[in-house]
Amino acid sequence: QAKMQGKNRLEQYDVQWEQSTRALTGKLQAIQQALLNEEFILYYQPKVNMAKGTVLGAEALIRWQKPGGDIVPPGAFLPAIQDHPLEIELGDWVIRTALAQAEAWHEQGLSLEVSVNVTSLQILEDSFISKLQAALDAHPGIAPEVLQIEILESSALHDLDKVSRVMQACRKLGVRFALDDFGTGFSSLSYLKHLPANVLKIDQSFVRNMLDDSDDLSIISGVVGMSQAFGLQVLAEGIETEQHGDLLLRLGCELGQGYGIARPMRAEDLPEWVRHWQASHAWREVKPVDFH
Ligand code: C2E
Ligand code: MG
Ligand code: MG
Ligand code: MG
């Protein structure tokens, strides 16, 4: 009897496993087809200097625009292509598209940095540097410094030696690096020494709770201190209100990004947004408040 149950359970497991692999295969195929059909689109979320009232650039965030018009967020399709060659194919597309966009803005008289998110699989692939070089060469209108590559702090730490070698090679090309979701990956000061990053992006979870959680406030304060010690830029993500922005400024973090500043938007909407935001924030003066 017990043996029978065990066998049934095993069979049930097999069926579920089969169904989930088939579903994954279906999704992979759909994503492959979507890439061919050019259904992917990059939205851009502005990155600003809150103290100076200037716009630094924008982060490219991928969306899947279904033929019916539905917009699918990255969290709903990127996991399905993890560790599949499509992860690299889509990643390459993101870099090429973001560079083309930065060049187009530049031609319209807007010099903006553009940030792209990458995975460690993507940047550790053998041909990553040569493809990056080719993509930069294809857009001679912009300097390589315009491109900023965001890698999750946690994945950078996971392959510390390999990732830092690739970062080094990219930096030789002029490309800049940010450690994304910083503060969640247990970076210590010594790890940071080995990663040639330019920017620390404070994870939005700390920013979200900073107004009522003193631990999160301390973490932010600590990351700002780390950035100063290493001569890095620091940028806060997930700024939803002016209160968040003001407190960050008092903590010494001038760079920010979040729904309170702007939601990710279509590329064609960005120039108008930049003009409007810079005009309305021109009055803002640097507030040198010593928080400590
Ligand atoms: P991320 O790089 O940390 O990007 C920030 C995410 O937070 C974005 O979500 C953005 O829309 C959202 N966000 C920005 N400001 C706020 C705010 O004030 N409040 C809240 N609640 N959310 C805010 P999104 O676009 O859904 O992207 C999620 C993640 O997917 C990204 O996190 C990034 O890790 C990944 N991702 C997005 N595009 C790409 C891509 O082209 N390639 C790769 N490899 N990953 C990508
Ligand atoms: Mg990012
Ligand atoms: Mg982030
Ligand atoms: Mg994130």
From TrEMBL:
Cleaved signal peptide residues: none
Domain of life: Bacteria
Domain named EAL: residues: 24-278
Protein family per UniProt: Belongs to the hemerythrin family.
Name of protein: Bacteriohemerythrin
Shown segment, full-protein numbering: 778 to 1069 of 1182
